[in-house]
Amino acid sequence: NAGVTQTPKFQVLKTGQSMTLQCAQDMNHEYMSWYRQDPGMGLRLIHYSVGAGITDQGEVPNGYNVSRSTTEDFPLRLLSAAPSQTSVYFCASSYSGQGTYNEQFFGPGTRLTVL
Amino acid sequence: AQSVAQPEDQVNVAEGNPLTVKCTYSVSGNPYLFWYVQYPNRGLQFLLKYITGDNLVKGSYGFEAEFNKSQTSFHLKKPSALVSDSALYFCAVRYRSGSARQLTFGSGTQLTVLP
């Protein structure tokens, strides 16, 4: 199993540009999520999905869109990049059902810089 | 609302000495509690979790954590630290019930084990 994969590893954008961060998992996990990591702030939830076709907002959703057309993929779209979106982005997945106690598996991250 | 606090940004310990990384939580119900570790330029890795039952939880790499309901704490411990334990450690909490798909992370504690 490849686990959770993310592409690209690094990205530099100019203000106003759009892009999509890719996330895929091969563990047949129902639950997938996107976090951003900023120094001194831990990880903050952007969006999450409990299954194909179902998404919801997390703590910091503004400026980001998600969709979940398949179990495996959960892309994160930046609509119009802003310098405040400079961060490290992590995708994670876990089993769902009653398993809010199930641990999450994290991808290696995407380091995004917005100029 | 659920929250988790890691009161120490940095913990230094000599190799071979016991280590403790502190975590306190705030939830209105019964929590699920987790510890994750992040090595440089990597995603988070699951260490251990408390669901119910025995208050002392054992996890990966010789780590353990003690759930203390009266003090609302979940401190991470290891009897004998290794230089390779140096990393960023995150505590996280989740509600057991409701729409609790969200995992709330602390701000992280940088552990440095000195040779």
Give me some keywords for this one.
heterodimer, A: 115 residues, mainly beta, seven-stranded mixed beta sheet, four-stranded antiparallel beta sheet, 0% helix, globular, B: 115 residues, six-stranded mixed beta sheet, 52% strand
Low-confidence stretches of chain A at least 5 residues in length (pLDDT < 50)?
none
End-to-end CA span of chain A: 36 Å
Query: Radius of gyration of chain B from the CA trace?
Result: 14 Å
Structural class of chain A, by secondary structure, is: mainly beta
Low-confidence stretches of chain B: none
Order of helices and strands of chain B: EEEEEEEEEEEE
The strand count of chain A comes to 11
Order of helices and strands of chain A: EEEEEEEEEEE
Percent range of helical residues of chain A: under 10%
SS field, number of helical segments of chain B: 0
Q: What would your notes on this structure say?
A:
- The complex is a heterodimer of chains A (115) and B (115).
- Chain A is an all-beta fold and 115 residues long.
- Chain A contains no helices and eleven strands.
- In chain A, strands 2, 4, 5, 6, 9, 10 and 11 form a seven-stranded mixed sheet that branches. In chain A, strands 1-3-8-7 form a four-stranded antiparallel sheet, with no helix packed on it.
- The termini of chain A are far apart.
- The model of chain A has no long low-confidence stretch (mean pLDDT 92).
- With 115 residues, chain B is an all-beta fold.
- In chain B, 0% of the residues lie in helices and 52% in strands.
- In chain B, the strands form three sheets. In chain B, strands 2, 5, 6, 10, 11 and 12 form a six-stranded mixed sheet that branches. Chain B has a four-stranded antiparallel sheet with strand order 3-9-8-7, with no helix packed on it.
- In chain B, a hairpin with an 8-residue loop joins β10 and β11.
- Chain B starts with a strand and ends with a strand.
- The model of chain B has no long low-confidence stretch (mean pLDDT 90).
- At the A-B interface, β4, β5 and β10 of A face β5, β6, β10 and β11 of B.
